[in-house]
Design brief:
- It comes from Nonomuraea africana.
- This protein is of the alpha+beta class.
- Helices cover 17% and strands 32% of the residues.
- The protein is globular.
Length: 333
């Protein structure tokens, strides 16, 4: 088996469960981690590949050894590397710390071990199974996992064909950092790089302050969101998706350009507000007085005490004051 980059199958976002007959779809949790293809050669050489084709071998030696010891040669699996925090939630910040190499990676593998949650199989014992329906691949995967011990860092992802049970997961698992659901046609083949699956993200409605905007004061394009921390410091916590013209006009009448003393820098470092992958330039934006409260919908993915994905703007809340906004990333209203 040649070692070459595999582009994993992907999921397109939806706002509700797709309609269908019983058994048309299989439902799985949407794990908040690093997508990873695990390859075990016929000679038992193991390779861990990220979603973009980068090598993970040095960063996650515990996953490497588990694949070597517990899955057969000639096998390729697809899954997500995750890190569970002591409080039982998925911890993406800790997972990012693990993306290192050398002695540091070995030390972290002992002190902050990760798990590899496997949800699909592309090759089993030298046989290409990508052309089989998902239901058949799942049976093969379950058989491959029979000898895997319960305490292993390898874990078989939860899956159900019951939409009622899936919605119960959707409404409850977000407290553990599960982002939502991945919905897969039961008869679908595994087609690398295609958008053949669906993802339904859990979003919570909450409040934030507007601390800045991209675009202009007359036509704000996106809102830069802020929250106060426990020490009374206004922190950047995220940004919104692009505003439509009507919403931008409504907000423009509420925004007050900031004077001296605004706590944020004139340019925000890349990565602070969900910059695109690989972007290294600071974000140019306009600072505003942090007095406008807005209602937004956010998912559960966080990073460095910020919402990792763009929030959806819902409406301004002129009836509220900054004191009504929760602290930190608390979602309580």
């Amino acid at each position: 088996m040649r070692l070459q980059a595999i582009e994993p199958m992907r999921a397109k976002p939806v706002d509700q469960l797709p309609k269908g007959r019983p058994g048309d779809y299989l439902y799985e949790p949407k794990w908040d981690g690093f997508r990873c293809i695990g390859l075990i050669n016929e000679d038992r050489g193991v390779h861990l590949q990220s979603r973009r084709g980068a090598r993970f071998n040095e960063s996650f030696p515990e996953v490497l050894w588990a694949l070597y010891e517990q899955l057969p040669a000639g096998t390729i699996v697809d899954g997500e590397i995750v890190r569970w925090a002591p409080d039982g939630r998925l911890d993406f910040d800790a997972l990012q710390r693990r993306n290192t190499a050398g002695r540091r990676a070995v030390e972290l593998a002992r002190s902050e071990p990760c798990h590899y949650v496997v949800f699909d199989v592309l090759r089993a014992c030298g046989r290409d199974v990508t052309g089989l329906p998902l239901t058949a691949r799942r049976r093969i995967l379950q058989k491959l996992f029979l000898p895997v011990p319960p305490a292993s860092v390898l874990a078989l992802s939860m899956q159900t064909d019951d939409p009622v049970e899936a919605l119960a997961w959707f409404k409850s698992l977000h407290v553990a950092g599960i982002e939502g659901l991945v919905i897969k046609p039961a008869n679908s083949r595994y087609e690398p790089s295609t958008l053949g699956w669906y993802k339904l993200k859990y979003r919570a409605t909450t409040l934030a302050l507007v601390g800045g905007v991209t675009g202009s004061f007359a036509r704000p394009a996106e809102l830069i969101l802020g929250r106060y921390d426990d020490g009374g410091w206004l922190r950047v916590v995220g940004r919104t998706t692009r505003l439509d013209a009507a919403v931008a006009g409504q907000l423009a009448r509420l925004l007050i350009p900031a004077g001296h003393g605004h706590p944020w820098p004139e340019r925000l470092p890349p990565g602070w507000v969900g910059s695109q992958y690989g972007q290294r330039e600071p974000l140019l934006y306009l600072r505003v007085e942090p007095v406008v409260v807005v209602e937004v919908a956010v998912d559960v993915a966080t990073e460095h005490h910020r919402w990792r994905h763009a929030a959806r703007f819902l409406r301004p809340r002129p009836d509220l004051t900054p004191a009504d906004v929760p602290l930190n990333l608390d979602l309580d209203r």
